[in-house]
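// run 5 | inverse folding | seed 20
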C-alpha cells in the first residue's frame, strides 16, 4: 500500500482514550510527548507520528509546516464528551507559553457534535472586568457569572483563541482542533475534588497574565451550512477548518496548500482517496491524516458523511 515514490498514503491512528474527572477524551491524532499517536493501517502500522514526520518531512506535513514546526506534528485532534462541567480555564498564547514553559501556546476550536437538552458552555467575558475584579471573583467562586453563556446544539462552533476564558458544560460533546499543547491554566473548578480526593490545583496568578479581558458582542462562530462543498468555520494563523456535509463525492486539491489535511468524521461514514490510488474508510469518531503529497483528495460518502477537515 502507498505511492511508489514516497510510500505515503492516508493514515489512520489508534485512538488514545483519556478518562477525566468530568468525562472522557478520545485523542484522534496527537504529537504531544508521552501521548504520541500510533498508525493503525498499512505499511507504517505501529509507527509513531513524530517518527513519520521526521522521516517524510515536507512530503507529510508540507514544506512550510516542516520549516515552522520541525518533527512536531502541529495539531492535536480530540473528541470530548463532558458528563460534568469542565473547569473554567484559559490557555496562554505562543509568546507567553514559550517564555514560561518552553512550549507553544494553545488556540483551539470546538464543533459541537452532540448536546443534551439544557447543555451550555461559557466563552469570553459578558462584561468588562478588571484583573483585580477577576481575582476577587475567583476567590468568591463567582467568576463564571462574568462569562458569556450559550445554550448549545449540534453544529455550533466556537473559536477559542489563546487568552479567551471558557468552559464546556455537562451534557456536551465536541470535536476539538487545537495547537499541539497541553498547557491549561485552571481558574475555577466548582470546588470539587480530584481523583486523589484533594482539590485540583488552580492557577489564578498564571491565568491573570494570560487572559484577554476584551469583551466581544458575540463569541459564537456563525456560518451557513451548504451541502457538498467546503464551508470554512475557522481560519486563523494556527489552522483552517472546513465543514463538509456530503451526500455526493467532492474533490479537495491539496497541492496548492503545501499542508497535510486532517479529516475528523462527526457523522456517517465514507472513504478518503488520494491521487496515488490509495483509499481508506472513515466513520463517525475516526480521524484520518492525508499527507501533503496526496495530490487531489476525494471525499466520498456512503451514503452520507460529515467531515471536519483541517490544515495549516
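// decoded
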Amino acid at each position: 500500500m502507498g505511492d511508489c515514490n514516497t510510500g505515503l498514503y492516508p493514515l489512520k491512528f489508534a485512538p488514545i482514550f483519556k478518562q477525566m474527572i468530568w468525562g472522557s477524551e478520545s485523542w484522534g491524532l496527537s504529537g504531544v510527548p508521552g501521548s504520541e499517536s500510533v498508525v493503525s493501517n498499512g505499511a507504517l502500522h505501529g509507527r509513531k507520528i513524530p517518527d513519520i514526520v521526521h522521516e517524510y518531512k515536507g512530503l507529510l506535513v508540507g514544506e512550510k509546516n516542516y520549516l515552522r514546526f520541525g518533527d512536531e506534528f502541529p495539531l492535536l485532534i480530540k473528541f470530548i464528551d463532558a458528563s460534568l462541567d469542565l473547569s473554567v480555564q484559559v490557555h496562554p498564547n505562543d509568546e507567553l507559553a514559550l517564555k514560561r514553559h518552553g512550549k507553544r501556546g494553545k488556540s483551539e476550536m470546538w464543533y459541537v457534535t452532540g448536546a443534551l437538552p439544557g447543555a451550555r458552555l461559557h466563552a469570553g467575558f459578558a462584561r468588562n472586568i478588571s484583573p483585580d475584579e477577576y481575582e476577587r471573583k475567583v476567590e468568591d467562586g463567582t467568576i463564571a457569572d462574568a462569562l458569556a453563556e450559550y445554550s448549545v446544539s449540534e453544529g455550533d462552533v466556537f473559536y477559542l483563541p489563546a487568552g479567551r476564558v471558557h468552559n464546556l458544560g455537562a451534557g456536551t460533546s465536541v470535536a476539538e482542533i487545537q495547537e499541539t499543547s497541553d498547557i491549561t491554566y485552571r481558574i475555577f473548578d466548582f470546588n470539587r475534588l480530584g481523583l486523589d480526593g484533594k482539590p485540583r490545583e488552580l492557577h489564578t496568578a498564571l491565568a491573570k497574565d494570560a487572559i484577554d479581558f476584551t469583551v466581544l458582542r458575540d463569541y459564537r462562530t456563525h456560518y451557513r451550512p451548504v451541502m457538498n462543498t467546503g464551508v470554512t468555520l475557522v481560519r486563523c494563523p494556527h489552522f483552517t477548518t472546513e465543514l463538509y456535509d456530503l451526500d455526493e463525492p467532492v474533490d479537495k486539491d491539496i497541492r496548492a496548500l503545501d499542508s497535510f489535511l486532517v479529516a475528523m468524521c462527526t457523522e456517517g461514514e465514507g472513504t478518503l482517496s488520494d491521487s496515488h490510488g490509495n483509499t481508506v474508510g472513515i466513520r463517525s469518531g475516526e480521524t484520518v491524516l492525508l499527507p501533503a503529497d496526496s495530490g487531489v483528495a476525494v471525499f466520498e460518502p456512503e451514503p452520507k458523511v460529515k467531515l471536519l477537515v483541517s490544515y495549516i
